[in-house]
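It is worth pausing here to work through a concrete case rather than discussing structure prediction in the abstract. The textbook approach is simple: state the sequence, then state the predicted structure, then interpret. We follow exactly that order.
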Amino acid sequence: SGEGKTITDMEVDSLRSADRPLRALYLRTISGNVIASRFIDDKGNVRDFSSHDKKPDSITRQAEMQDTIWRHPPDTADFEQLAEGKGGLQLAISENAYEVSFKRPAVTAEPLVIEGHLILAAATLRPVAQSLRVQDGPDTREYKFKELRYEVLLPEQVRPGDFAPDSYTDHSHAGQNSTRNVHLTLQALGILSHQPQNVQAAVDIVRHPDAHIDVTGVLPTRQQAQSLTQTFRALPGGGSLTIDLHSTDDPPTPGRRGSSVELTPQISIASEHIALEDMLKNVLRARWGADVPLQDEQVLQVAREIVMRSNKVDRAAWIVNQIGTKDFRNAELADMNSQDRQLWLESLLGPLMICHAELSGIGSLLGEDETAESTPEEDIGPIRSVRELATTADSLRQSADRLNRLLIADFAISPVDSSTTASRAELFDQLAEVRREESRLRVAVERLQRAAKTP
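Step two, the predicted structure:
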């Protein structure tokens, strides 16, 4: 706001075709509800939807700038149009990014973007952040965008409805569907939580805003894939699940050529080397004694375990974020009966416990002081609402992703001349941040479970 206070947080999903003008934009609340969307077809025709107006807005109409600024996530061509050309653009260069900006006075009474800042990652030149300041008469608002995730999908991974207006959630219809499959989603999550960890890590259960449920994954064996498929199908209402489970030993489909990836030039690693090798050696000497000779393989094994545990933390945080912020709407959580609420809490607690155990393991491998392993429950700030839980779950996912990238950069095998991206202090700071957020969520879930069991 003009007073510098955050009014609200939302998410924008931007889907773009690589070879056609197709584009889709979705505006979602933190809980995952779609409240507006925009679709651009092959011919450039635009159709807008809003939760306030269920029918498509096929007629161009003048809309308030505050209602439409979400349609401008970071994009170089769009930013140039907002700046009304390249003439007024300025460039600032830093070590890891380029910042393109413009600023102009408000010369009309109509809403106008008077200032913009676009951040491009230096390595990829991809827009990753943006701020836009809008002047509307005496009022000023600032909109800040930050990239949360970025994916490039193969054609077969794109669903037909992703770019189709028909996939927009009609809330009355979605409400009817949600009452039928909330329990089904929770049961499916419960089945997955009782599988071995390698199976849990290979399967995704995603409930979309239109209440459609996808179960996807690639399991180690065909027998496991078939068995789990049958288990999901046996659920009451399991026929409404879209189950797409495969295995690494599936025979090739007749008539279909296998895909291959060729790297040119080939990447070669001169020798097995990790960026923070000296740090690990010091930790192992302190643990085993300075007189015990260290083998390179011992150091590499510890490094591999750190990366493996980090991947598990990242995966668990993603699951917590999916269940806590995207699979269920606030109204659905409020309407859950006691049995479903317990299933929801158990689905959250499982990955949180995995996250907790792996974080402790990482800290131990890095030589963390055991007395600093956990924070007393009374010192953890309580989570007082579903919205706050969702915000914390999303923050955990982002923090875990950053920790994973730091640990991979510093402990995965890399060329000898690679540079360290984080110091020991930075690693421990990020580890502590992930642990605080995990602890807040775990304590909140455990408190809710105890409260639900109290007569």
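Step three, interpretation. The first strand starts at residue 11 and ends at 16. The chain has eleven helices and 13 strands.
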